[in-house]
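Section 5.1 Outputs to date
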Amino acid sequence: MDNFTAAYRARMRFCHLPACLLFLFPGTPLAAQIHLGIRIGAPLTDITETLSTGGAVLTNLPSRWSVGPMVELDLPAGLGVEVDALYRRVGYERFQSFVEGSSEFTDELWDFPVIAKYKLSDGMARPYVGVGWTYRKLNDLLRFSSSSNGFVLATGVRISAIGLKISPEFRYSRWANEDIQPGFRTRKNQAEILLGVSF
């Protein structure tokens, strides 16, 4: 065993995980920190829009919640980046006729926002603003035909307490396309309240 290999193993044996990651990826800023967590939220506006197709009226069903994992990277000078994968159930009530009645159908909607953040102050409670890009996918994640993208604005405050990062947030999204696929229409403007918990 050469001297380099022996020194490398000794260093890896005694270092903590964050220090090991910085050693393995020397390009990572020393002040950068990664926080993993979850975001949950509720829309302030309807996700889907009522529409008519094929002689039937499709009335949007309210989507009451969203949930998904979050990853936040803290950078120097109050900067940071957050990436989410938010899942929600959406759908319609289809009214065909007074004879045939109505039926409901739902689907899975995924949003993947990437938001650059700037924290306005130091301390336990840090207000922040953010701007970014988001991608939306309906149902099958491997089919790119039923998707849309847009931009995101966010504002909130991150509170550090008992080893956790708690961040209530208001988020606005503006989508490029309303019709994700035929017979399924989402609103171009979306506002929601989200709560993030990370460590």
